[in-house]
Structure formats: C-alpha cells, structure tokens
Structure prediction request, 333 residues.
Amino acid sequence: MPAIRDGRYVIVGGASLLGSNIARQLLQGGVREVLLLDNLALGSTEAVADLIEDKRCTFLRGDMTRLNELLDPFKGAAGVFSVAGFLSGPMLANPWMGLDVNVRGLQNVLEAARLRDVRKVVFSSSIGVYGKMGQAPNSEEQPFGWDALPPALILYSGSKIVGEGLCRLYHDQHGIGYAALRYTNLYGENQHKRAIDATRIVNAWERIRAGQRPVIEGTGNQVADFVYVGDVARANLMAMESNVNGAFNIASGRDTTFNEVVGALLKACKSDLQPEYKVDAAKVSNPVEARLGISVEKARRELGWEPRTDIEQGMRRLVAWLDEDARKRAKFA
Prediction:
C-alpha cells in the first residue's frame, strides 16, 4: 500500500465514534481526500462538523445496505474503512436489521470495492468473536466459545465472524487486501451510548456531574479491556498502510475492573463521590470474566502497532470532551 497521504479514502460509518477519529487522524496525516459516508441512523453530523470544515473532507449520506449508494463514493478510492455496524444492544432490539447491516452491508462494501478497484478494506470486527475467553494470554488463535452467551451476543459475534469470512473470500477470489481489527471496549472523544460498557461510562459521568453517586453493576470486580479510540484509529491507519492481511486483536492488553474505570472517571472529574452498587438482571451483559489477558503481540509484530494511552489518560480526555460537549449543548438549548 502507498503512504496514507497519497490517497483518497472512504469511511463507511464516518459519523461514528471511531469513524470520526479515523478521519481526524487521516487529515492530520496529510491525506489527499476523505469521504465520510453515513446514513445517520445512529450518528450525527455534529460529530464531524469540525472535520468537514477541511476542504479535503466531505460528508455524504448513504446506506451500506444499498450497493448502488456505494459505487460512486468508492470510485477512485485507494482504501475503505468499514466501521458501520450494529452492536449487541441494537441487535437485541432488531435482530433482522442488525444481521442485514452487519452481513449484507459488509458484503456490499466488499462488492463495491471490487467493482471500483479499491486496493484494501479495513473491517471493524470485535473481540466478541471469541465469546467466553480461555486461559490467558488470549491471541488470535483463541478458539471460539459461544455456549454461555446470551442470544443477542451470539448474533452479534456471529455476524462479525461472517464479516471476517467475507473479507477473506474477497481477498482470495479478487485480490482485495484486508485487515479485520478485533476491538475491545472503545471509549474516547465523540463517545456514544450504544456499546454496553461505554454506556455505563457515560451514565456514570452524567451522574457524577449531577452530584449523584455513579452506579456500578455487581461488585465492580469483573474485568474488561478498555482501549482508547485514538489508539484504535491509529491501528486502522497502520493496517491500511500495511501489506499484511488477516485478523488482529486491537486492545489495551490490560485487564481493568469497572471499579478502576469509575475510579479513573471520578479522579478525572475531581469528585469525591463514592460508587453505588446495584444489579439489573434485565440488561444485556457481556460475559463476566475474572481474567482476560488479551494479547496484542500479533498487531505489534505485523503492523507495528501498540496501545499508548492508559485508562487514566483516556478518562481525562473523555471527561474533557464530555464536559465541553455538555457546555455546547447547554449554550444552544
């Protein structure tokens, strides 16, 4: 692949948390042109208002489930970042549409890439493909274990596996380069409230700023891997520039309890509130793990990527963004 700055790139799901951060790093890296494609079903143009002030960046409303709406945007593109997709919560609410978006939508992205001679597609997959984790360290060779998952997570994880299979199929049959990046829990600037653990973080911030105790479900000792969105965006750019194809874990590589997450959030908010512990059996939950130990060695070895932002740094940046976003909304309310 040529250097990023030499090409034109399309981000499908460009108004999202990750899509907007990928675009920002592309523009900072001197890219020639960025096109943000999004149907705005979940995102909004507010997330990319500053980006489209740059004459190299344009926004187009389009839907990945309609192949014809991808053909013109993909013309002349060196690469495509396929970010858009249903998460497990929306998948539970509308499984038919979720599968259509995550499977047929990605197939349309790949087919449009084939028809327009796009050289590479970077696909947003998920660490959820593994289901329940085994013994650490958990690498890309980890076997899948879905038996204990709730149905919504099985559907979500299955759709991501099918997506990775489609990427491999188009690579083998049509020579399209690909990278399937398996993310853990993303957080950072332009944060939304759709992912399970990210929603809990934003809810906790809202309560803290309202002078209320943040709520932690269960004991708070269950672990997850939280990865800063800026690090994930950088992984996308490095994967696009790489000549390597395959699936890669993109994670912090550090097990973090939700007690630690809320502790970092309280510290960033300069609050002395104490958490409140509750259990809500009606909510969709990720598998409870005592230890994850997700390995990012393959991404480090083959892409040259590694995480740079720890949970305290990331929470300071997230809180600064949430506070500023709240000020803007209050100003125009």
Q: What stands out?
A: The mean pLDDT is 90. The two ends are 46 Å apart (CA to CA). The domain at 4-188+227-252+293-308 is CATH 3.40.50.720 (Rossmann fold).
